[in-house]
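Quick one:
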Amino acid sequence: MSTTNADSEPAGETEPASAKGPRRRPPSAVPHATVAERVARGRTARTDVPRSSHAVFAPPLRADPIDLLESQAKSRVPELVPIRYGRMLVSPFTYYRGAALPMAADLASTPNSGLRVQLCGDAHLSNFGVFGSPERRLVFDLNDFDETLAGPWEWDVKRLGASLAVAGRENGFSAKSRKAIILGTVTAYRMAMREFAGMRNVDVWYARLEIEELMTRLGGQLKRPMRERTERTLAKARTRDSMSALSKLCHEVDGELRIAANPPLVEPIRDLLPGEDGEALTEELHELLRGYRQTLQADRRVLLEGFKMVDLARKVVGVGSVGSRAYIALMLGRDSADPLFLQFKEAQPSVLERYVGKSRYKNHGERVVAGQHLMQASSDIFLGWLHVARGIDNQEHDYYGRQLRDWKGSAEVELMVPEGMATYGRMCGWTLARAHARSGDRIAIAAYLGGGDQFDRAIAEFSEAYADQNEKDYSALADAVKAGRIKAQTGL
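Output:
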């Protein structure tokens, strides 16, 4: 017998815990199906929803993507929303990065296998990267979980495949090269899922992609320019820590370290809310920090207690996230040469909620943290959540916290050549399969995918069709700006 929660929600959405008290409801029994039953479930799903059907992108009644983007803007910081649009207008690929909600709406109209996992919800090419594990090893994994929620596993695969088509077009790759890249990526996903289906549960949990091991394995296969560029990227990632953030983001004021203002991208709380109001809010934030600390693992709470918060600022981050509230906190340990930068990022409802149902977590910060722990092989030691009952705008907000920098690095997609994107795509495909295998029924999914390449070819066809739609949506956003319907601030 093998354990599985195949007939229930993925594990990340089943039994939400709370730092304030017990679970909202008692845990339900977990079904235990045999391997044969799980294989049969996958094959039945394949009969009901043929693999070739995933090639189709023909929504019967499509929502206006600009309407959807504007609906998100209503809950964001008004003066920052134009920056979001400006960043999305840089290229069709940056538009795609910010358009998780329009694509979620589109995916809801596509064939559904009925096999659910914990989804990333925004598994595009730039949301994979390297970061430091607690063991101080560079690992490759998914790195953005703002939209994580339980849903059909193929949605993440389609988001990844379409991102390769969009990025490949932007880099001038031929249609033949793009197809080969997407096929290689989806094949890597399918083969990895078959591998995980045959592994013991605990072995799946321990599986991860360590960069040193990967470079040893791939080093001889990479052309010299690509290998040297990769090594430079990895070396740069190892320097991205709190010390490097200190030199970039801080200066001394009357002998004290403070976060330097760089409006509108970095704005200290003392500038956003000066005087007594700002002082009162800072004191309140110290209380909130104590609440956040309680969501951490016990040993990490002890570690964090050794740091004192000395400054706080609002910071603009990402593309799709711009306009949601994000803050950075400068913490100091033994002295000024022992900094720790924490980032507290607002967690709003996942864009998937409209189409797959609400999360069982009341706090969306906890939803993000639970999903990240479930999908990642190794997560930030300071990953936790908090709830703000009264923010600067006197509104309630959920947040999740983590280190601002911890050996984080990502590939420069715009500089990739076909060979490089193909290799990177295969890494992403393997990683996504591993993430899905941790929460969903990997045996049923592997049985659904089968040994042939029907699903791979279907996703390649879907990806090109969606890249066509993405270009139209990008033009629609540009037209909306020209018509004065929305405002965009570029260059930031």
